[in-house]
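Cross-check.
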Amino acid sequence: MDVTDLKVVDAVARHGSMNKAASELNTVQSNVSARIRALENELGVALFQRSAKGVQVTPAGRRLLPFAARLSKLLADASSAARDDGQPKGQLEIGTLETTLALRLPRLIAQFAKAWPDVHPVVRTGTTNSLIQGVLDSKLEGAFVAGPVNHPELHVEVAFREELVLVTSCAVDSLAAVASVEHLKTVVFRIGCSYRQRLDTLLANLGILAPEPLEFGSIEAIIACVCAGVGITLLPRGVATQALREGLVNVHELPADLAEVETVFVRRVDGYLSSALATFLDSVRLDEVAALAPNAFVLTANASQSAAH
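Predicted model, tokenized:
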């Protein structure tokens, strides 16, 4: 097994097709098929299931894919390192929570892009779990996720701290009143969101069995549902500020153990820290405007004191 084998496996898995993988790799389908068969014979396991509709990755193939991604990233990092003269440039691909994107990143990225026009930021959103996996699989250079995080392959930095609040319709005037809501529903992001887990804990503390959640992919949709009285949610205070000012929702403070949450930036310990990423993180640390805000950025490297998320 060599680098080319892993590249072929990765391309076939992404496209679900030998032919499409061959096109990407600038070769013919027969070469791709032969390479996959030879590798399967070498390993003694099937990596793909073939059918008239294409190919599907087997469990063995799925176990191999992260290594293909990491090796591809390692080769890309080696190339980038050779060309990196300390001047930030090139693509910077990071991940973030939806809430962090809404609250924190627009101004920071705008300032960074203006200061370093040769850098092209690409921002992907997801849940904490999916973003961490993206970093581990070397699909992202790093990501802003909900802390704490403890993983031997990740370097973790505290980025900023948020205050979570319970957001309800105006008909709910207190935390205690949540228990009396008929047909209570929670309005949340998909599984893997740490705020969702904290909301379940809050309801349990109130003696409420967590209802079947309604899942949405955007903050706007979640807040709109809460405004309409569809359900309740847990979000950083800043996200709900506008709706609160407009009298569309009520916001309820939480016990400290549930309200205080850290957003951390994670990246692979063995990943290449490009000049673009290093400069971006410096710009976050030195953001004077945010440092004067109530929820100040405190991006302080502190991997050792983080706990499991």
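The longest helix spans residues 59-83. The chain has 13 helices and twelve strands. Passed to J.P. for a second look.
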